[in-house]
Amino acid sequence: MKVLLIKDVYKLGRAGEVKKVAAGYGRNYLIPQGFAIPATPGAMNQAGRIKEKATERRAVLNEELSSVAEVLDGKTITFPVKAGETGRLYGSVSSEDIIESIQVNFEIELEKRQVETEPLRQLGTFSVPIHLTMDLIPEINVIIHREGELPGEEEETGEENASETETVQESETIETLETDEETADDTEDSEENKEAAE
């Protein structure tokens, strides 16, 4: 079905645009939530006016929220968690957890729809976009680390293990080469002894 957006919808379009969407998405979400109306000929006549008003409203919002975007952009929040040996969490860090942490650390209240991320289930650093408006999307860094360890320790440990493995492999290679040389020497000696016996 075709709908006329009367509000900006992230990943879909801006107010005043006509979009083709799945019938269920249009009827069950966009229209009841007040994001769109059916794209009838009457509605299409209003498209220009809707677009104009939305542009004005967006400019005001961008100005109001630009200071919030500056505060959030590039900031880091950390979550100490319990995780298995492979780095998989016993549970997850959800968008609600991120919203709560932002409120505690920066005194900024966000809605769930503004923090669009799948639940994070691995140790590591993740970049999460915050959708303040269609034009203002600051990104924050979310560091998930093991309880009792400092953020980033997992990566260092991984590097150390990698270098240890390389050292072990190198020493094993040297031992193998030495053994091969010794075996070759033994073979030469036994061949010389045979010739001497003959």
What is this structure's SSE topology?
Layout (H helix, E strand, L loop, with lengths): L1 E4 L12 E3 L2 H8 L5 E3 L2 H32 L3 E6 L6 E6 L1 H12 L13 E3 L1 E6 L9 E8 L6 H45 L1
Parallel strand pairs: 4-8
Antiparallel strand pairs: 1-2, 1-3, 5-6, 7-8
Main attributes?
disordered C terminus, three-stranded antiparallel sheet, 2 domains, Ribosomal Protein L9, domain 1, alpha+beta, Ribosomal Protein L9, domain 2, 20% strand, three-stranded mixed sheet, 198 residues
Question: What's a concise summary of this model?
Answer:
The protein is built from four helices and eight strands, in the order E-E-H-E-H-E-E-H-E-E-E-H. It has 198 residues and is an alpha+beta fold. The protein folds into two domains: 65 residues, Ribosomal Protein L9, domain 1 (3-Layer(aba) Sandwich), CATH 3.40.5; 81 residues, Ribosomal protein L9, C-terminal domain (Ribosomal Protein L9, domain 2), CATH 3.10.430.100.
